[in-house]
Amino acid sequence: MSKLVIIDDDPIHHKIVQYMLTKNELSKETTYAFDGRLVLDYLEENKNKITTLPDYIFLDLYMPNSSGWDFLNRFQEISKSLRKEIKIFVVSSSIFQMDINRTKNYPFVAQYITKPLMKTVFDNIRGRSLKISGAQLN
Fold first, then answer.
1. Which of 53, 62, 49, 58 is nearest to 26 (CA)?
2. Which pairing describes strands 27-33 and 56-59: parallel, antiparallel, or unpaired?
3. DSSP 64-97
4. Structural domains of the chain, ranges and CATH numbers in brackets
5. Is 64 exposed, middle or buried (0-12, 13-18, 19+ CB in 10 A)?
6. How far apart are CA 9 and CA 32, in angstroms?
């Protein structure tokens, strides 16, 4: 099981993800944040502590104080200094192709997911991590 960080300004989205995670067993440890700047500061402070860093980040794009775009730009600057690869899943209510295409400019973005989150999203992520784990064991 993995460590997950949810960055979203909507407390209802946090509750939905919390419920989905209990049903789908994707994460052993989940952190919820309303502002990506705090998460970025934490990542920078703990960049050498592999066991402390998350495996996945679910990121909303449109938030009032610091947008998901701001997060992606700063994460791009620090990602090379992190001792662990962190996959980011953009989770947004935006269905604009322009937003989807723009996220493809960030190599660490694993997938663009439109809200609401469905069970298949968790199944796909869990399937990916099992394949990755299996490949590393061989």
1. 58
2. unpaired
3. SSS-HHHHHHHHHHHGGG-SS--EEEEEES---H
4. 2-137 (3.40.50.2300)
5. exposed
6. 10
Residue 100 reports pLDDT greater than 90: yes
Cβ(44)–Cβ(78) below 8 Å? yes
As a whole number of angstroms, the distance between CA 60 and CA 14 comes to 11
Structure tokens at 17: 């993800």
Quote the CA–CA distance of 65 and 99 in Å, as a whole number: 19
> Please, what is the Cα angle at 124 between 1 and 17, to 5 degrees?
65
Residue 132's Cβ-side half-sphere holds a number of Cα atoms within 13 Å equal to 11
Q: What is the length of the chain? A: 138
Express the helix, strand and coil content of the chain in percent, nearest 5 each. 45, 20, 35
Most confident residue range from 9-13, 15-19, 106-110: 106-110
Q: Quick one: average pLDDT of 61-72?
A: 93
Burial class (CB in 10 A: 0-12, 13-18, 19+), 100: middle
Tokens read off for 44: 């920078």
